[in-house]
Structures are given as structure tokens and as C-alpha cells.
Amino acid sequence: MPVVPIRKQSKKAQKKENARQRRNWNGLNPVSRTVPSGKVYNRKRLKREDRIRREEG
């Protein structure tokens, strides 16, 4: 049985193949991650730093 390229398959077959390929991320979260900038105002960070300063002094 010859292999038919995905582009030449029916829309239904293409959807089935695409769904099969998307099925498993092997435990990896597909959401892209960014490292937060240290320059950005962050109220939680400020509260945490303030709390640490109070405990020390």
C-alpha cells in the first residue's frame, strides 16, 4: 500500500493525522515560558523582600 502525502489526503484524514501527532507531549507543558524581568514592578517580590528584611533586623 503506497503512502499518500498528508496534503493529498482527504480533509477528514488530515484532521485524524494531525490529531494523532498532537496527542502526546510526554509530560511537557506546551505553553511557552519566559523568564520574568528583574526590572518589572512586582508587588509579591517587594512584599517578600520586605518581610525578609524585617525578620533579619
Care to describe what's here?
The longest helix is centred in the last third of the chain and has 14 residues. Helices cover 46% and strands 0% of the residues. The protein contains two helices and no strands. It has 57 residues and is mainly alpha-helical. It is rod-shaped, with a radius of gyration of 25 Å. The mean pLDDT is 88.
Helix percentage range: 40-55%
> What characterizes the major β-sheet?
none
Query: What structural category arises from helix and sheet content?
Result: mainly alpha
SSE order:
HH
User: Distance between the terminal alpha carbons, to the nearest Å?
Assistant: 77 Å
What is the average of the pLDDT values?
A: 88
Anisotropy-based shape: rod-shaped
| Contiguous uncertain segments of 5+ residues | none
Give the radius of gyration: 25 Å
Report the β-strand fraction as a percent range: under 5%
The counted number of beta strands is 0
How many helical stretches?
2
Write the layout of secondary structure elements.
Elements: H1 11-22, H2 43-56
Features:
single chain, mainly alpha, 57 residues
Question: Would you kindly provide a brief summary of this structure?
Answer:
46% of the residues lie in helices and 0% in strands. The protein has two helices and no strands.
